Amino acid sequence: MGSLSLIASDQILLAAGFDGLEALMVRLDMDDASQGFKSVRTIPVISDLVQDYFDGDFTAINGIKVRQPGAEFSQSVWKVMRKIPAGKTMSYAELAQRAGSPAAVRAAGSACGRNLIAPIVPCHRIVKTDGDLGNYGYGLELKHALLKFEGAI
Questions:
Q1: Which residues are catalytic, by number?
Q2: pLDDT at res. 96
Q3: Are residues 81 and 138 in the same domain?
Q4: What digits encode the pLDDT tens for the residues 39-94?
Q5: Nearest CA among 126, 134, 114, 89 for reference residue 15
Q6: pLDDT digits 0-9 by tens, 52-67
Q7: 101, 120: one domain
Q8: Can you give the residue range of the structural domain that contains 100?
Q9: Domain shared by 52 and 79, yes or no
Q10: Which of 29, 37, 41, 82 is the most exposed place for a label (fewest CB within 10 A)?
């Protein structure tokens, strides 16, 4: 699936993604980016939980504390996404409903697109109502691979 880059502060994951550290750094909130980070090969606890996930323990990533800035609705969307179990998917419409605003389907999709902590905040588990994969910031091939890996397809 490629290399997963992580950015953390005090055991809280701030960013994760498959496009490299530089791509994550430019998307960080200014307050977080201004902290300055050092490059390390592993982050205690977080790296182990991520490795456990990729070794097949899909619940391992639930133990990772995360933080990303965003509006109240986006925060609700990300919270709902973290509750979707591996092997399951949810439609954008259901995501909007569970996040508290059934009419905000596009806003739910936008929150997925702004998610800075993939796949820990599992936006790859969100699909169109008809079951089509929809979009994924790291490409549909990777979204398909993650869903297949988790047993959702």
A1: 123
A2: 98
A3: yes
A4: 898 999 999 999 999 999 999 999 999 999 999 999 999 999 999 999 999 999 99
A5: 114
A6: 999 999 999 999 999 9
A7: yes
A8: 72-150
A9: no
A10: 41
Is the pLDDT reported for residue 31 higher than 90? no
Burial class (CB in 10 A: 0-12, 13-18, 19+), 103: exposed
Q: Output the CA–CA distances (angstroms, integers) from residue 89 to 72, 81, 146, in the order listed.
A: 23, 10, 11
Indicate the pLDDT class of residue 29, thresholds 50, 70 and 90. confident
Query: In the predicted model, what is the mean pLDDT of residues 5-26?
Result: 94
- Quick one: 78 and 136 in the same domain? yes
Note whether 59 and 76 are same-domain residues: no
Q: In this structure, how many other beta carbons lie within 10 angstroms of the beta carbon of residue 115?
A: 26
Instruction: Give the tokens for residue 132.
Output: 């089509």
| pLDDT, averaged across the chain | 95
Q: DSSP characters for the chain?
A: --PPEEEEETTEEEEEESS-HHHHHTTS-HHHHTT-----S--TTHHHHHHHHHTT-TTGGGG--B-----HHHHHHHHHHHTSPTT--EEHHHHHHHTT-TT-HHHHHHHHHH-SBTTTS-GGGEE-TTS-----TT-HHHHHHHHHHHT--
